[in-house]
Design brief:
With 158 residues, this protein is α+β, with helices and mostly antiparallel strands. Helix content is 23%, strand content 40%. The chain has a domain of 96 residues: Ribosomal Protein S5, domain 2, CATH 3.30.230.100. It contains 3 helices and 8 strands. A hairpin with a 2-residue loop joins strand 3 and strand 4. The longest helix is centred in the last third of the chain and has 17 residues. The protein is globular. One of its GO terms (biological process) is proteasome assembly. It comes from Nelumbo nucifera. Keywords: Proteasome. This is Proteasome assembly chaperone 4 isoform X1.
Amino acid sequence: MASGELKGHFDVAVAKDLSGKESTSAVSTGDGDGIQITCFTEDLNDVTFHFQIIRLEKQIYAWIGCNSAKLGHLYAAAPTRPNNAVSVASILGGASDNTGSSIARRIVLKTGLNVILACNIPKNSPMLEADAERKLMEKLKELGYTRSRSQGSVLSNS
């Protein structure tokens, strides 16, 4: 598909708050399905975290940058049947570094969606990992991507 054809298929709206720290883009294909892109930065305990969340129909892509804009390790996580467990695979990066894999696993448990997570949080930094995960989960909840408690641990097909 040529780039000229793509322009006719998508509408993009970008909003930025007054501090300039957050931007959200909503991309719609015109048939009700949409992609929402949210980017924000948080300064926590003298560390700058950069976040990007891309919400697709049944999947979330999230990126966490710690003091830089490097991609870091890349993980894929998904709910598995029949016992509603979560499977996590390392796509890029070392298998010995499980910093992002635990975050990806917990996002799947809280959203019920497939997750691709890229993060460059330093190894052996549990406090940084906890801070980054807390901020990411706060934003996912604010955006309405988490499941309600009434849905419990049962994952749906939708």
